[in-house]
Amino acid sequence: MKNENSEQNNAYLYKAVLELKDMDECREFFETLCTMQEIRSFAQRIQVAKMLHEGCVYSRIVRETGASTATISRVNRSMNLGKNGYEIIFERLQETE
């Protein structure tokens, strides 16, 4: 029962994010939902993933993002074993830049 409720909560969150229409709405939503530290952590992880995707070495990523090597390793592992969420975002961002 608890797992089913958790899945419903997750689905509601994902649907809520899909309803955001622009950067201002997105910023407002995340600043309401998350602490500033959580937002910084999310931002750091996506920057780490972007740099890994571009072929950057750990030492450069540490220097430029301030992320620990443990964080970089976790992001790298999720990129290699994950569900391709980063790849989808990078492709779409590249199309709009």
Backbone CA Rg: 15 Å
The rounded distance between the terminal residues' Cα atoms is 44 Å
Number of strand segments: 0
Full CATH superfamily name of the largest domain? TrpR-like
CATH T-level fold name of the largest domain: Trp Operon Repressor, Chain A
What share of residues is helical? over 70%
Question: What percent strand?
Answer: under 5%
Could you walk me through the main structural features you see in this protein, from its secondary elements to its overall organization?
- The structure is a single chain.
- The chain is an all-alpha fold and 97 residues long.
- The protein has two domains: 33 residues; 64 residues, Trp Operon Repressor, Chain A, CATH 1.10.1270.
- The protein is 81% helix and 0% strand.
- It is built from six helices and no strands.
- Helix 3 packs across helix 5.
- The longest helix is centred in the middle third of the chain and has 18 residues.
- The radius of gyration is 15 Å and the shape is globular.
- The mean pLDDT is 93.
Task: Give the secondary structure arrangement, pairings included.
Layout lengths: L1 H17 L4 H11 L2 H18 L4 H8 L3 H13 L3 H12 L1
